[in-house]
Design brief:
Shape: globular
Largest sheet: 4 strands, antiparallel
Number of strands: 4
Length: 69
Amino acid sequence: MHSNPGQPGRFHLLLSSHGQPVQHGWWNSESVARGKLVRGVGEYGTMPGGRITLTDEETDTLMQVWPQE
């Protein structure tokens, strides 16, 4: 997961393991952020206690969670 350095975007993607942050990034494009989420599930889907969240930082809305709760 990567983002634009120095300029956080609207959409925040967070990868955590057992509640601890592991990696995160911000994007201005929702479609790019959703694509990164799908890619993250493929790359980190077997991580013990893994969880990926996509949040709209502008509206403070949790948009997607993997695995689904």
